[in-house]
Write a structure and sequence with these properties.
- It is built from 13 helices and no strands.
- It has one domain.
- The N terminus and C terminus are likely disordered.
- By secondary structure, the protein is mostly helical.
- Helix 1 crosses helix 5, helix 2 runs antiparallel to helix 4 and helix 8 runs antiparallel to helix 10.
- The protein is globular.
- InterPro entries: Caa3_assmbl_CtaG-rel (IPR019108).
- It is a multi-pass membrane protein.
- It comes from Streptomyces violarus.
Length: 274
Amino acid sequence: MPAHGHTAGSSLLGWLLPALVLLAAAGTYLLFARRARRRNPAQGWSRWRTTGFLTGTALLGVALLPPVAPIAHEDFRGHMAQHILIGMYAPLALVLAAPVTLLLRTLPAARGRQLTAVLHSPPARVIAHPTLALALSTGSLAVLYFTPLYNATTDSPTAHWMLHAHFLLSGCLFAYVIAGPDPAPARPGVRARLVYLGIAIAAHAVISQLMYGGFWVDIHAPIHQVQGGAEIMYYGGDIAELLLAAALVTTWRPEHRRAPHREAGATREATAHA
């Protein structure tokens, strides 16, 4: 009985802490959004952005709290559902909320210039490169499921939370590089980003199919659970990546690229008439 009470207390603390962190994050965003609207009432702050951030924190809550969290510890399918929520769906919602832009609107001018300088620094350019973002978010899946790493994380609570942090941060980085509305240093064009997104889609499909077929995977779980997890990864990942592609396409403004050509044509016509 004492052991059972200790385990229950540990589980309660493990669920209470992420719930408090998520509530604090949501409250901080709402506070900053209110401050941005007060500072510039004409410009305001998009309620859609706010809704996106709240949706992202809610998805993280679904993944990290009961009933999904206990299932993820016992069933590989629950782990994969948790992985998809933390690493793909929640990051997309959080990134579309433009938290960096919100921070820039609420910081004092001097602090804002410092943050902008950091965003355009050489290390930030390396971190925000699509190749690195792709390797961290998608390439790491092969390392996780085709080596003993996944099994090691199931035996260590610290490693398990570190895995959650990796899923979330790498997912946010990839979504930010591909379709984030926040300013990004040296972000490639839309066509290049579509290529990177296509590579991610193909990699997810290959990894999930190899997992379903039992090729090279190193996962200590019943076969039906591994195959079910592979299906969740395949179909759930496809939906998330289609949503990311839709977010990317909405940022494409071809008319702005044609404007210089129109201006050049108008200049030539004026010259000819002259």
